[in-house]
Amino acid sequence: MKHVELQNITKRYGQFQAVTDLSLVIEKGEFCALLGPSGCGKSTLLRMIAGLEEVTEGKVVISGADVTDVPPAKRRIAMVFQSYALYPHMTVGQNIGFSLSVAHASKAEIEKRTAEVATMLQLDKLLDRRPAQLSGGQRQRVAIGRALVREPEVFLFDEPLSNLDALLRVQMRLELAKLHKELKSTMIYVTHDQVEAMTLATKIVVLDNGRISQVGTPLELYHSPANKFVASFIGSPAMNFFNSKIINVSAKSMDIQLGSTRQIKLNCSGTDLKNGDDIEIGIRPEHITIAESSKRVDISGAISIVEQLGNSTVLYVDSEIGQVIVECGGDTNLEIGSAIGLNFDIKKVHAFSTGGQVLPRHSV
Amino acid sequence: MNSRNASRWIGLIYVLPALIFVCAFVLYPFGQLVYTSLTSQSLLGGGAFVGLANYQRAFNDAAFWTALGFTARYTLFITPILMGLGLLLAFLVLPNRKIQKFARGVIFLPVVIGLGTSSFLWYWLFDEQVGLFNKVLVNLHVIVHPIVWFTSADLALWAVIISVTWKVVGFGMILFVAGMQSISSEVVEASLIDGTSYLQRTTRIFLPLILRTILLVTLISAIGSMLAFEQLYIMTAGGPRGKTLTTVYWIYQNSFINFKLGYGAALSVILTGIILCGTAVQLVLTNRRAHQ
Ligand SMILES: Nc1ncnc2c1ncn2[C@@H]1O[C@H](COP(=O)(O)OP(=O)(O)OP(=O)(O)O)[C@@H](O)[C@H]1O
Ligand SMILES: [Mg+2]
User: Fold this and answer.
1) Model confidence pLDDT, tens digit, residues B156-208
2) So what's the architecture of A240-352 in CATH?
3) Which CATH number do you get for residue B123?
4) Range of the structural domain that residue B138 is part of
5) Is residue B144 part of a domain?
6) Does B191 fall in a domain?
7) DSSP code for A227
8) In chain A, ranges of CATH 3.40.50.300 domains
9) One-character DSSP codes across chain B
């Protein structure tokens, strides 16, 4: 069931166009991540859904009703801000209960609901503290509590974890996932951290310069990026890209040049491609392996940097096609400077046209 | 000399200029004032030590207590007006649109005019023959005949209050605007999402969050009013019949018209004591409320 719908949304700040003709449907109960680099318009989009930012053109529809001109409080949404935006002069309890008190709920009702939410978020011992006396993680929980108490249909999060340290971020990520599972409400979550998006979201919307670059599940984006932007944005370490030339193109496959000696056959193709065309290919570091014998080697080079992460080892290999990043097992033990042969998992190679669009894959 | 001691000396050097300034221009003159208040010093000579005689005299000086009463009344009237109007104006000019920025500038403008100058300006504006203020009121049919402002003590008080309000209300307004603009916009947005009406936002978000500024402006306004002099010297000259004589005016009359410097000094010390007490009470209130 459609829950939040953006219809041809455009947002202009004076001359500057922050969001361009963007349409998006978010289903009821979905955890949707808006992912993209800084300045791509994620916050602007979220704030338009919240009603904090005017929509220049287009419509915002929530639960079938056009809310484009409806004030934020009447949209049945709640928002958690990056800076938490707690009311500094109120206690934790007052912060959580504020929306109820504003709506003239009875004192008993406010106390009951505040206590419920506080228990759920383990804030019950902190109810009399002020925001200044809380740790970052506790403030975060109060901000979530303030959203929860309103029992909204849609939760909006704007980079809620970016002010936390790495450990706490992982912990809060889990709590958010749990929260979504319990409440089953629709959540829209802005982040520039692809790991957060991949782990939390059921649907990821990748934004680039105010436009949707691709919409899909985490694994769809990982396995079949629609373009070079998504391919480079999703995955860590980032995908390798190399320039190449088409040797021989057919309807469903093509042979391309890899380095000076090797040719590989890819099971993808495009209609307006011809032999000799420039093409860009991409492969993820985890889909490159170290060659076991020197017989069949896709590309060879010398190791320039070794990063040992314990559970994996990342090699930066200088080769004739440029730097190749390789992710291999944690117990790999290789010296900087040593020569190495690499094999590509050909089925996992993506090919991109010069415009950056991925070339459709065909099952051969 | 260990490093801890050294850093203490360095710290002293840093505050030395301020310290010298305060000593030379505050502490030393105040010491002199207190000393003078214990003598029979006069502009015509004298200067014998008389102990607390001047203070004793002040206690029995009905004119002094009347002046203090009038000053307190003036302060009690004008301070709420300055605060209320300043806050109201601040809310009106808060949005950062062109017209509001322009209005802020216009309202603030009189603050940079000297109080003496503005008092003269208003003295003539209030004139019953040529005064523009009377003319406007008559033309707007608020009054039938021009008011003679300075023959009644009450009207004169209001004339002074109107002129001083015009002169200083922009000062509080600017501080309030600055206070409100320093409130995080996300906090205000959060309250929007929480469903506050404009009135609720004002009373439950804006006002509590600028409480410190409000108390500060109250303090500055109240002290300024307790020290009122020029505006009344110029506009009413203490009249009619000494009914608009303020404390400082009375001190001035004793010191420089009657030449009794020692007595004037004693009155000044008493006024300083009263203002210090009032300030202390307000500071305690500030810290209690704003620290919660
Ligand atoms: N009030 C404004 N006036 C003018 N331009 C604005 C305004 N707010 C945002 N922008 C511009 O709109 C674009 C999108 O901003 P937005 O805040 O949505 O980015 P974002 O994707 O949330 O980035 P980040 O990850 O850094 O928060 C930016 O280029 C920004 O400069
Ligand atoms: Mg943002």
Assistant:
1) 899 899 999 999 999 999 999 999 999 999 999 999 999 999 999 999 999 99
2) Beta Barrel (2.40)
3) 1.10.3720.10
4) 78-244
5) yes
6) yes
7) B
8) 2-233
9) --HHHHHHHHHHHHHHHHHHHHIIIIIHHHHHHHHHHTB--BTTB---B-TTHHHHHHHT-HHHHHHHHHHHHHHHHHHHHHHHHHHHHHHHT-S-SHHHHHHHHHHHGGGGS-HHHHHHHHHHHT-TTT-HHHHHHHHTTS-SS---GGGSHHHHHHHHHHHHHHHHHHHHHHHHHHHHHTS-HHHHHHHHHTT--HHHHIIIIIHHHTHHHHHHHHHHHHHHHHT--HHHHHHTTT-STTTT--HHHHHHIIIIIS--HHHHHHHHHHHHHHHHHHHHHHHHHHHHHHH-
What is the Å distance from ligand 1's center to A33 Cα? Answer: 17
Q: What is the DSSP letter of A320?
A: T
Whether residue A274 contacts residue A354, with contact meaning beta carbons closer than 8 Å, is answered with no
Min Cα distance A341 → chain B (Å) is 54
Measured in Å, residue A39 CA sits from the centre of ligand 2 at 7
Q: Taking the CA atoms of chain B, what radius of gyration do you get in angstroms? A: 24
| Domain-embedded: residue B261 | no
Instruction: Point out the residue among B184, B187, B193 whose CB comes nearest to the CB of A50.
Output: B193
Scan for tokens 């391309």, then name that residue.
A256
Q: Is any ligand 1 atom within 6 A of the Cβ of residue A15?
A: no
Q: Which ligand is nearest to the CA of A40?
A: 1
- The model's pTM: 0.83
- Output the DSSP codes for A64-108: TEE-TTS-GGGTTEEEE-TT----TTS-HHHHHHHHHHHTT--HH
Is B284 inside any structural domain?
no
| Residues of A in Cβ contact (< 8 Å) with B191 | 87, 98, 102
Pairing of strands A77-80, A154-158: parallel
Contact A87 B205 (CB under 8 A): yes
The response to whether residue A192 sits with its C-beta less than 6 Å from ligand 1 reads yes
A2-233, CATH topology level = Rossmann fold (3.40.50)
Classify burial at B183, counting beta carbons within 10 Å of its beta carbon; exposed 0-12, middle 13-18, buried 19 or more.
middle
Interchain pair B195, A83: CB under 8 A: no
Q: How far is A318 from chain B (nearest CA, A)?
A: 48
- Residues B125-166: tens digit of each pLDDT: 888 888 888 888 888 888 888 888 888 888 889 989 999 999
Say if the ipTM goes beyond 0.85: no
- Domains held by chain B: number: 1
Mean pLDDT check: name the lowest of A209-213, A292-296, B74-78, B128-132: A292-296
From B119, B156, B124, select the one nearest B230 (Cα to Cα): B119
In A135-229, beta strands by DSSP E? 154-158, 186-191, 203-208, 211-216
- Does the pLDDT of residue A323 top 90, yes or no? yes
